[in-house]
Amino acid sequence: MGLDHPRAALDTTDGGDRAGPAPPRATTSDGFLSICVELVTGRGRDWWPRPGRVFTAHRRHTFAQLAEAIDVAFGRWDLAHLRMFVLPGGVDVSWSAWRDGPAFPGTRDGRSSRLDALTVGTAFAYVFDLGEDWTHLCTVRCPDPFAAVPQPSQPPRPDRGWGDLPDQYGRDRADDRVSAAAPRGSSTLLSDLPPILPSWGARADMSLPRAAGSTGDTSRTPHPQR
User: Fold this and answer.
1) By three-state DSSP, how is residue 71 classified?
2) 3-class SS at 223?
């Protein structure tokens, strides 16, 4: 282990005794989860390679807390939009949990629904701004033992990430005007996804033309090591 390793400073040279108590490690048995979140679509475009962030969260966190952490980590500044999680089995966590009033009928309330409903290996979707359709693939993994550990009273914490994050209104400069998002059709770039959302997975109708502004490069490159 090199001296630049983040844990090297905890070791001494006299037999490996710790200079101080080891920091807490995130483990599944302690209620921690690692959630990989990848941006799939938004503003009529399929994003490839998919930018992503990996979060350490606790089972006592709510879906509302996870949504807030995702939006901050993906650089969103206008948060006055509708939100929804779609869980396996067609279970929806309603966006209205982030507004006054009850959740939509037939949906769970994100303010009270906790992440303890998730298990390692579960894949689910997060949708921010139902008009612009920023969709994300979320995958639950075993926690990274070297990740910073958030307390349940703290929000989920991003540990690492990759990729270029697009502006939520497609602007490159401060004086750019907001343009309407292009309508999108189905895409072969979504065929590898679990069929959680209507346009995801092999069941999508691939005969539809690609929307203007969608990425035309269908070449695949490996995901980064996480």
Assistant:
1) helix
2) coil
